[in-house]
Amino acid sequence: MSDRPRVGKIDLPVFESLLQTRLGRPDPRVKVGPLTGVDAAVLEIGGQALVIAEDPIFPAAGLPLDTFGWFTMHIGASDVAVMGIRPEFATYSLLMPPGTSPEDLDCITASIHQAALELDIAIVGGHTGYYPVITVPIIGGITVIGTGDPAQVVTPGGVQPGDAMLMTKGPAIEATGLLAVLYEQELRAAHGEAIAEAARARSREITVVKDALTARAAGLVHAMHDATEGGVLGGLWEMAEASGVGMEIEEALMPWPPEVEALCGLLEIDPLAAIAEGTLLIAAPEETAETIIAALGGEGIACAQIGRALDDTGRRVIQRRDGRVQELAVPAEDPFWPAFFRGVERLG
Fold first, then answer.
1. Cα-Cα-Cα-Cα dihedral of 305, 39, 63, 261, to 10°?
2. Residues 109 and 194 in one domain
3. What are the beta bridge partners of residue 139?
4. Which terminus has fewer CB within 10 Å in the chain: N or C?
5. Does 130 lie in the same domain as 239?
6. Which residues on neighbouring strands pair with residue 165, listed in sequence order?
């Protein structure tokens, strides 16, 4: 990978030097602006919080085209829901190569529409067109907006010392769902049909909308964060850094779907470092943790307490299942990407 150009999100130094210092006109209505590890912006207008998130979306190799539309709406909506506010409105920009068939355009827009109906989101604008520089249909950006009481807003920077740290579903949800398609034959040969099918099915769990809204309604939540690139390790570090707290985490306490373990073991990738869209990290007072876990369980979402937040900012550690204790940190490279490119190259 040393000779491959960087893929995925820019790193923290580039973000801080090139983006965070170039934000146009300051405005006091901006309550939460661009910050590393923060999933959406928050404006306060007329006494209401306006939460805005944006993401690009790419089709997943080997998955049906309607899944691309489902990803579009759920990934965008997840970034608003983790701020404690229900997503309500969306715009999207669909860019397609010339020659895209009318059937493909119909499939993509119909699946986005259907996902919006399921999430009770109104699509209010966007852009759709054909461009020669585009090689596959992509969403140049989906913008999702929610409104609500400013007191209901939470951010990844709200963790308080003593909070219980909770995690839903398990690690590497997105990595498992996407890589299981590319390595289906190997996974089936090594672990059988049931594991291979369960791993593929995780692609329909690349969302934390229900996780976040259920947790927020169940009890007092101080912070939530969707573990995307850099996985659980990166997501926990981002929460600790944004909040100015320490953390002690135990890998053995996490939910561990067998198909996640099988896929990551097969490809020799660290599941805690791999992209984990669909995994929600929650910080809540100890006294409300069990209520939140029970509420999520009632919705069929596995959740467990995996550690706690500390006063000591110098101690941010995770005990791995083999007994090793390591520092929480954003991985230098998400191990999903090398495995993904190897899989795509094999498809020709």
1. -30
2. no
3. 57, 94
4. C
5. no
6. 283, 307
DSSP string over 14-58: HIIIIITT---S--TTEEE-S-TT---EEEEETTEEEEEEEEEE-
- The one-letter amino acid at 323: G
Task: Tell me how far apart the alpha carbons of residues 158 and 50 are, in angstroms, rounded to a whole number.
Answer: 18
For range 63-70, the mean pLDDT: 91
- Pairing type for strands 122-130 and 89-96 reads parallel
Report yes or no on 6 lying in a domain.
no
Q: What number is the average pLDDT over the span 17-46? A: 89
109-121 average pLDDT score: 97
Half-sphere exposure of 127 (CA within 13 A, CB side): 11
Q: In terms of Cα–Cα distance, which of 263, 227, 231, 249 is closest to 326?
A: 249
In a domain, 190, yes or no: yes
Beta strands across the sheet bearing 30-32:
30-32, 41-45, 48-57, 138-148, 89-96, 122-130
175-189 mean pLDDT = 96
Q: Is 183 exposed, middle or buried (0-12, 13-18, 19+ CB in 10 A)?
A: buried
Are 259 and 331 in a shared domain?
Answer: yes
Q: Judge whether 5 lies within some domain.
A: no
Question: Does 312 lie in the same domain as 178?
Answer: yes
Instruction: Judge if 189 and 338 occupy the same domain.
Output: yes
- Is residue 123 located within the same domain as residue 193? no
CA atoms of 301 and 205, how far apart (whole Å): 10
pLDDT score of 15: 81
At a CB cut-off of 8 Å and minimum separation 6, what does 6 contact? none
For the stretch 248-295, pLDDT in tens is 999 999 999 999 999 999 999 999 999 999 999 999 999 999 999 999
Is the model's pLDDT at 2 over the cut of 60?
Answer: no
Split into its structural domains, the chain has a count of: 2
Q: How far apart are CA 282 and CA 224, in angstroms?
A: 4
CA proximity to 308, closest of 165, 167, 166, 168 = 165
Q: What pLDDT does residue 348 have?
A: 61
The pLDDT confidence band at residue 1, using thresholds 50, 70 and 90, is: very low
CA separation for the pair 284, 162 (Å, rounded) = 9
194 and 342 in a common domain: yes
